[in-house]
Structures are given as C-alpha cells and as structure tokens.
Specification:
7 helices
Length: 211
C-alpha cells in the first residue's frame, strides 16, 4: 500500500503542474484572440461562450499528455490523471473560498455547494481520464470510438453548456448543480461500462502488464 501511494503521489503533483500550465495557456489564448465584450443584463454572449467552450478542449490535451507520460497499468494512469487534475483545480479555484468563507460566523449554502462541486469535479475528471485512456488504446473497437469522442466533447463543454442553460432557463445554482450531477453520473456510467467491456475483452483484470 505504501509503495502504491509513493508511486501515485509524485505523478499526481506533476499532473497538477500540467493542469496549471494548461489553464495559463487557456487564459493567454482567451485574452489574446477572444476579447470580451460588454453584454447587456439578461443577454447571452453566444460567441464568447462558444469560444470559451472551444478553448476548454485544451483540457483534453492536458489530460492526454499526463496519461501518455505515465508508465504503468491503465487504472494507475486514470487515477493519476483524474486525481491530480481535480486536486490542482480544487487548490487553485475552490480551496481559498472554502477555507476563508466557510469559517465565517454567518452560514451560507454556497460553501456547501462548493463542496459538492469539488466532489463532482473529481468524478468528472476521472471519467474524462478514463475516456481519453480508452481512446488511446490500439485495440479499441472502431464502432465505439464515435461514442467515446462524443462523450469527451460533452465532458469538455459541460461547464459552458450548464452556464448557457442557467442563463436561458433561469435555473437556480442548486438546479444547475443537480443537472451537473445527473450528467456526470450518466457519462460516468457509460464510460465505466465501456471500460469494463474493454478489460473483459483483453482478459487482463489482474495483469500488471495491462496498459
């Protein structure tokens, strides 16, 4: 167990560094090529949201780099990429508001929501890593590839789609959170089913050479 933890801890930190580098590249691209415009209250900047969704594809590239550089079994690659990416996102985006705000005297539901979002994000990134790993496999059935690619595009653009839904239909924050849970659960269910089928196909459940 200790050997496994040591083998995972270092690559997870490295995955977090790749996450930060990916987000920096995304911010530079957005600021350089897609400047923001003032949008009237209640209106949707559809062009800006689409461009933001397109730039979010860099997250797939970052996860692919992590998985391709990691040596070991498939489950280890998925764990390192998913947990490392989610850990870096938590530290950079949610840790400070939770640490400062949640310790305040006045109670607020938004910190409970942030905690839920952090757990959903962990599952979301593990599912994305699982899909990318399956996409890199040479023995994956060609009939399954369109489904994997569609799920990856959905995962990449999920946050943008949720924001558009919230603006169009005036969902509350917890309503959007509920939709996020359902989408993540359904995508995870399909991805896990594909992953199990691939493992059964290769007959490599306990094989340390399985990659």
């Amino acid at each position: 167990k200790q050997w496994y933890q040591r083998r995972v801890r270092g690559p997870c930190v490295k995955a977090g560094g790749i996450y930060l580098l990916t987000q920096l590249c995304k911010m530079i691209i957005l600021a350089t090529f897609f400047p923001t415009y003032e949008v009237p209250v209640g209106k949707i900047d559809l062009h800006g949201e689409l461009m933001k969704g397109a730039v979010d594809l860099f997250d797939l590239v970052g996860l692919f780099v992590i998985i391709s550089q990691q040596i070991g079994r498939g489950d280890l690659k998925i764990l390192v990429a998913g947990v490392g990416w989610a850990m870096a996102e938590l530290i950079s985006m949610r840790l400070l508001p939770l640490w400062v705000g949640a310790r305040g005297i006045e109670f607020s539901w938004k910190y409970i929501q942030l905690s839920f979002e952090a757990n959903i994000s962990l599952a979301h990134h593990i599912v994305m890593a699982m899909l990318i790993w399956m996409w890199t496999r040479n023995n994956i059935e060609k009939s399954v590839l369109p489904l994997i690619i569609s799920l990856l595009l959905l995962c990449s653009s999920k946050q943008t789609l949720l924001e558009l839904l919230g603006t169009l239909f005036h969902f509350t924050s917890f309503g959007i959170l509920s939709i996020n849970v359902m989408v993540t659960f359904l995508v995870g269910l399909v991805a896990t089913h594909l992953y199990i089928n691939l493992c059964i196909q290769d007959n490599s459940w306990g094989n340390p050479k399985y990659h």
